[in-house]
Amino acid sequence: MKLRFSAVLIGWLLCMALTNCRQDNRNNEQTNNGFPEPPPLNETDSLHPANGTRSPGIAEDYTTTNRVIWQKPDMIIDLLGDVSGKTIVDIGAGTGFFALRLAPKAKKVIAVDIDKRFTEYLDSVKVLELPEGMQNRLETRLASPRDPLLQPSEADIVLIVNTFMYIEDKPGYLKILHRGMSEGGQLLIVDFKKKRTPIGPPSTIRVPIHVVEEALYDAGFRNIVANDTSLDYQYIVTAQK
Q1: Overall average pLDDT of the 32-42 stretch
Q2: Which of 167, 161, 182, 181 is nearest to 215 (CA)?
Q3: What does pTM read for this prediction?
């Protein structure tokens, strides 16, 4: 009798375990909506530090902070003007917050990152998020921390969001970037203000807006305009080749 009871108990426990496992899988499917999981990161990883180092507590996508609200992607994209027929380079593209929004509008978007996990992720997710006829507009490019690996005059527009602070040799990187842009090409940099904000990286690693301006002048850019009022936590700097 005891043996029979034990067998029944074991069978019941196995059944419950299988039921819970199936339920977990269903919950995961509902949570992910059928999309691939973003690349796994350690808690202290930044998504695309341009100098290849890790910065405590920083994640580029800031997925738990209502990024769409404070980042205002539509407003930033509007600043680029008419992008149809143009090649846009998104430096530090990460999981494609801007690249996926720009691909339907531009002739081509090159999503540049130094982390293979993100280029591979974008290559997978664009098949799900973009119409079939637009998927070839989004190209990923695995670059080095010191060089975005652009061809001469390849980019009409360059976007650097939440990434400039991580670039180690800022003047040198901008000079290389300058060569990769077409004549009259536009550069737009968005980064965190050098002050305490509810979200964002530690203030110690943030770059003051005047440092960005000086680096752009040194690299040969012109028509530099700084805007620190349109976004609550960040400034926007635009420049032209």
Answers
A1: 48
A2: 167
A3: 0.77
